[in-house]
Design a protein that fits this description.
This protein has six helices and five strands. The chain is α/β, with parallel strands linked by helices. Helix 1 links the parallel strand 1 and strand 2.
């Protein structure tokens, strides 16, 4: 996977966070980044722009990141409804991770994060193509040692 080939949609209601993520993405070679400040507009943008990856804030006014993810998984016409989604949040509680997992998120990153952490999440998500729920099922299927 080459970062310069990725089309990434950033969905966050905080302008400073959108700028920060955009700056990080461009610093690692991502050339095609669009950022949107709300989930409703992002749903429409997915249909017309066809991103390769979504970075979505967990807490937003109106359509939050979890409900947004549910809608992408159920309403958006994507191959196998597997458009990669990484939830970005300032919260690290396990119940939030589980909620994102059940909605169909591929991964989860907690703010503040480093460039390296974000790059690692993107690489892992794009290489595996699995949702957090898929990863959980794989972990459950592994024999205990």
């Amino acid at each position: 996977m080459k970062f310069e080939d990725l089309r990434i949609l950033v969905v966050d209601d905080n302008a400073n966070m959108r700028r920060l993520i955009n700056t990080i993405l461009r610093s690692v070679g991502v050339l095609d980044v669009v950022d949107i400040d709300n989930g409703a507009d992002a749903l429409a943008m997915i249909q017309e722009w066809k991103p390769d990856l979504l970075l979505v804030d967990y807490v937003m006014d109106g359509l939050d990141g979890v409900e947004f993810t549910r809608r992408v998984r159920s309403d958006i016409d994507t191959p196998d409804n597997r458009l990669p989604i990484i939830i970005v949040t300032g919260y690290s509680e396990l119940w939030r991770l589980n909620e994102a997992k059940k909605a169909g998120a591929n991964d989860f990153i907690v703010k503040p994060f480093t460039t390296k952490a974000l790059v690692n999440r993107i690489q892992r998500t794009m290489s595996q193509g699995l949702t957090l729920e898929d990863v959980g099922r794989q972990d459950e299927a592994k024999p205990a040692h």
